[in-house]
């Protein structure tokens, strides 16, 4: 079983470890596959599982953890770290707590380890589906929503709270009034979208940056093959006897961030863990730092196109 390093985040219990690599579960209509993948991942050594109300995978994640406990693959709930997220149709103060309680019901858990605001948006549309009518997307009242997130932590329903897809400006706004600052900001990050300024800002404010789409969501309808087919990364991978994915994940690890990988293929799941007993050279890092930057990952019906902000467009193809 692989040993996965941890980062540290703030929580209701004080400084708390979070595994630097987590298994993502963003998928469509594959509940049985999600459950089997999470059980297999636990056997391999994965301990962080990332889900969301939007994904529809909270139930199979919870079922998999229960099965792993019963089978003895883990000894207690405390051995796993569960992240879930608040969908924008519930980003109003009075809707946050009920949304988390619904997620906990789906997961079959008394608490989650991390609860994130999924997007800095308000969707005036009751259903969790895409595409969302453009006229239903409005600005979020972040102060009232964050106060509700703080209440969730104070009630013990989540150990930590954070955000996802937030710019430094939006986080700074939260910091101006927060009694509990965000512990995590989860954003797209990979060698082709390095988020240098945002990572620097988060480090300065003791917020852990967590990278999703570390391979640009290759293989998903909202992603592209830009990372896995990047010539620079392929050349480094070839010279090191590694896969391009391993080079990308190792690069993220060396940036001091955590990251979410999503593969249900057993061999790739194992390969994604095989990044902790070697390092990139300074020359490798210098070459990677010079890769031209490009952001255009189709995700959850939105196109995020700006480096430090979120531009929302409705993608009719999703």
From TrEMBL:
InterPro entries: AKR (IPR020471), AKR4A/B (IPR044497), Aldo/ket_reductase_CS (IPR018170), NAD(P)_OxRdtase_dom_sf (IPR036812), NADP_OxRdtase_dom (IPR023210). The active site is at 55 (proton donor). GO terms for molecular function: aldose reductase (NADPH) activity; D-galacturonate reductase activity. Its EC number is 1.1.1.365. Substrate binds at residue 118. GO terms for biological process: secondary metabolite biosynthetic process. Gene3D superfamilies: NADP-dependent oxidoreductase domain (3.20.20.100). The keyword Lipoprotein does not apply. The keyword Oxidoreductase applies. Residues 21-291 form the NADP-dependent oxidoreductase domain. The record marks 85 as: Lowers pKa of active site Tyr. Pfam families: Aldo_ket_red (PF00248). This is D-galacturonate reductase.
């Amino acid at each position: 079983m692989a040993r996965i390093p941890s980062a540290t985040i703030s929580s209701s219990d004080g400084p708390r470890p979070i595994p630097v690599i987590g298994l993502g579960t963003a998928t469509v209509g594959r509940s049985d596959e999600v459950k089997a993948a999470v059980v297999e991942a636990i056997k391999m050594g994965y301990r962080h599982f990332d889900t969301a109300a939007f994904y529809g995978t909270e139930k199979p994640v919870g079922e998999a953890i229960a099965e792993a406990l019963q089978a003895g693959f883990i000894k207690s709930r405390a051995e796993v770290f569960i992240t879930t997220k608040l969908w924008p149709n519930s980003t109003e103060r009075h809707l946050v707590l009920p949304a988390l309680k619904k997620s906990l019901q789906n997961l079959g858990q008394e608490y989650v380890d991390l609860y994130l605001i999924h997007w800095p948006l308000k969707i005036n549309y009751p259903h969790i589906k895409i595409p969302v009518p453009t006229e239903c997307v409005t600005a979020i009242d972040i102060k009232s929503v964050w106060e509700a997130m703080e209440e969730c932590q104070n009630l013990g329903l989540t150990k930590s709270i954070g955000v996802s897809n937030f710019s430094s400006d939006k986080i700074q706004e939260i910091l101006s009034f927060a009694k509990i600052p965000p512990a995590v900001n989860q954003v797209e990050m990979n060698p082709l979208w390095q988020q240098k300024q945002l990572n620097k800002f988060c480090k300065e404010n003791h917020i852990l940056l967590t990278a999703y789409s570390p391979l640009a969501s290759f293989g998903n309808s909202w992603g592209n093959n830009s990372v896995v087919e990047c010539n620079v990364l392929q050349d480094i991978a070839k010279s090191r006897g590694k896969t391009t994915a391993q080079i990308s994940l190792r690069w993220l690890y060396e940036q001091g961030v955590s990251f979410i990988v999503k593969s249900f293929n057993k061999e790739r799941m194992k390969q994604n863990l095989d990044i902790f007993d070697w390092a990139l050279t300074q020359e490798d890092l210098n070459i990677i730092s010079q890769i031209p930057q490009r952001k255009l990952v189709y995700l959850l019906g939105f196109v995020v196109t700006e480096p430090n902000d979120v531009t929302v467009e409705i993608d009719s193809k999703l």
